């Protein structure tokens, strides 16, 4: 650490040069990220309330109440009239919280297992690693949809929970949540839905008249759900959402941190000190955009998704294995195992997609920062690269 501090201007100049390598959302190169430039109003509100530590409810009771109000609003969006839960640091934390609840509810099982689709996010494996849970992945069919028969066959007397995904990390598909709910009921299992991405897309697609299967708390066996404000919620990074039906589990499982001013309050989050500003910013953003604002943004993202789909279909040597159901699209080179080379070549030109080499697939997310001109330029470059490497 230097002895004498620098001026603000010197530091800002230093930072400009040190961070110059970072990509900008408006560059047209960030094509595979599920995050985006937060809406400016959310950034402004976040900056205003940075000091609020919602980990200490006694000091910030109003922010804590606002969190509950926000969770109720999310419950409303996801068809849950008894919504409890918390704003978290993202999808991983929310999924880990869900797995911890599932584990705590089954002290009778010595070697607990969780059955997930093979498309489930790595955060379930993190949860498994932390809590000694064996994660059992059920295979996908060739079109990347879940093989439900295989999923069912993995359930044993050690299974403590099942997971469904509404907006898979690979290419945004929706698992058959209703059928999975029936399985959960039949086998008396905790059922968590990971809608980290889909949570703030699907309600608006439903509004827009898209034919979307049931995916949220309207499936009555769903116990809890993940939905991320920092993905299509368009709020500040990081912020996640964990919503659970009813509060009985929270009262049983939360930790009281007695030395805090709000000591008699049950903490469920992994984080202790946590940003109240993330709660306030997302609450403010939901008031600001309203359902109509989100609907309009999602509509444009979907139109761009279909535009990209059409452009990709015109390029020889690449295909789309499954029709996109939300603004996430998987593109697969026709030649087996070419995805790694393709990704490498794209990265040389600084195009950042998501590589899923086991599926020979690259993921693209048509977030609000991805514009038509970005799609056009990308498709031209993709065609040239494909010709070169095939
Ligand atoms: N769940 C799904 C379906 C995801 O796609 C992701 C990340 O992309 C996560 C969970 C993890 O979210 P985070 O990176 O916010 O922890």
How would you sum up this structure, described in words?
This protein has 390 residues and is an alpha/beta fold. It has 2 domains: 24-37 and 291-389, Alpha-Beta Complex (Aspartate Aminotransferase, domain 1), CATH 3.90.1150; 41-288, Type I PLP-dependent aspartate aminotransferase-like (Major domain) (Aspartate Aminotransferase, domain 2, 3-Layer(aba) Sandwich). The protein has 12 helices and 13 strands. The chain has helices at residues 8-18, 40-48, 61-77, 91-104, 123-131, 148-153, 177-187, 202-207, 248-253, 276-313, 339-348, 372-389, and strands at 83-88, 113-117, 134-138, 159-165, 190-194, 224-226, 240-245, 255-256, 266-267, 318-319, 328-333, 354-356, 361-365. The strands form 3 sheets. The chain has a 7-stranded mixed β-sheet, sandwiched between helices. A 4-stranded antiparallel β-sheet has the order 10-11-13-12. Strands 8-9 form a two-stranded antiparallel ribbon. α3 (61-77) packs parallel to α10 (276-313). It starts with 7 loop residues before the first helix and ends with a helix.
Supply the number of helical segments: 12
Distinct small molecules: pyridoxal-5'-phosphate
Helix content: 25-40%
Structural class by helix and strand composition = alpha/beta
Question: Average pLDDT, to the nearest integer?
Answer: 97
CATH superfamily of the largest domain: Type I PLP-dependent aspartate aminotransferase-like (Major domain)
The figure for the number of domains is 2
Return the CATH class of the largest domain: Alpha Beta
β-strand amount: 5-15%
Shape: globular
Could you please say which CATH topology of the largest domain applies here?
Answer: Aspartate Aminotransferase, domain 2
Query: Which sequence of SSEs, written as H and E, runs from N to C?
Result: HHHEHEHEHEHEHEEHEEHEEHEEH
Strand adjacency order, main sheet: 1-7-6-5-4-2-3
CA-to-CA gap between the ends?
51 Å
Indicate the CATH architecture of the largest domain: 3-Layer(aba) Sandwich
Number of strands: 13
* Main sheet overview: 7 strands, mixed
Give unreliable regions as ranges: none
Radius of gyration (CA) equals 22 Å
């Amino acid at each position: 650490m230097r002895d004498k501090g620098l001026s603000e201007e010197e530091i800002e100049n230093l930072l400009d040069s040190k961070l110059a390598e970072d990509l900008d959302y408006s560059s047209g190169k960030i094509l595979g990220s599920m995050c985006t430039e937060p809406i400016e109003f959310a950034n402004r509100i976040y900056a205003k309330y940075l000091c609020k530590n919602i980990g200490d409810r006694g000091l910030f009771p109003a922010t804590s109440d606002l969190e509950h109000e926000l969770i109720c609003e999310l419950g409303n969006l996801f068809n849950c009239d008894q919504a409890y839960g918390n704003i978290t640091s993202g999808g991983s934390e929310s999924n880990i919280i869900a797995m911890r609840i599932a584990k705590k509810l089954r002290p009778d099982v010595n070697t607990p297992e969780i059955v997930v689709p093979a498309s489930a996010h790595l955060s379930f494996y993190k949860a498994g690693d932390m809590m000694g849970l064996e994660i059992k992945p059920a295979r996908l069919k060739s079109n990347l949809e879940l093989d439900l028969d295989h999923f069912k066959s993995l359930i044993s007397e050690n299974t403590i929970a099942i997971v469904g995904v509404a907006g898979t990390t690979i290419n945004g598909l929706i698992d058959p949540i209703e059928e999975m709910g029936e399985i959960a009921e039949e086998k008396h299992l905790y059922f968590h839905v990971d809608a980290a991405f889909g949570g703030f897309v699907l309600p608006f697609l439903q509004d827009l008249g898209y034919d979307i299967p049931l995916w949220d708390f309207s499936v009555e066996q769903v116990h809890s759900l993940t939905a991320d404000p920092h993905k299509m919620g368009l709020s500040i990074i990081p912020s996640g959402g964990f919503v659970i039906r009813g509060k009985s589990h929270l009262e049983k499982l939360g930790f009281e941190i007695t030395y805090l001013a709000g000591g008699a309050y049950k903490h469920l989050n992994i984080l202790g000190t946590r940003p109240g500003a993330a709660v306030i910013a997302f609450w403010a953003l939901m008031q600001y955009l309203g359902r109509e604002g989100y609907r309009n943004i999602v509509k444009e993202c979907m139109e761009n998704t279909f535009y990209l789909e059409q452009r990709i279909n015109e390029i020889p040597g690449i295909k789309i294995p499954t029709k996109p159901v939300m603004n996430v699209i998987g593109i697969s080179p026709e030649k087996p195992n070419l995805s790694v080379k393709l990704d490498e070549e794209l990265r040389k030109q600084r195009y950042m997609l998501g590589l899923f080499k086991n599926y020979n697939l690259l993921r693209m997310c048509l977030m609000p920062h991805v514009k038509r001109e970005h799609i056009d330029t990308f498709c031209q470059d993709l065609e040239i690269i494909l010709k070169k490497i095939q």
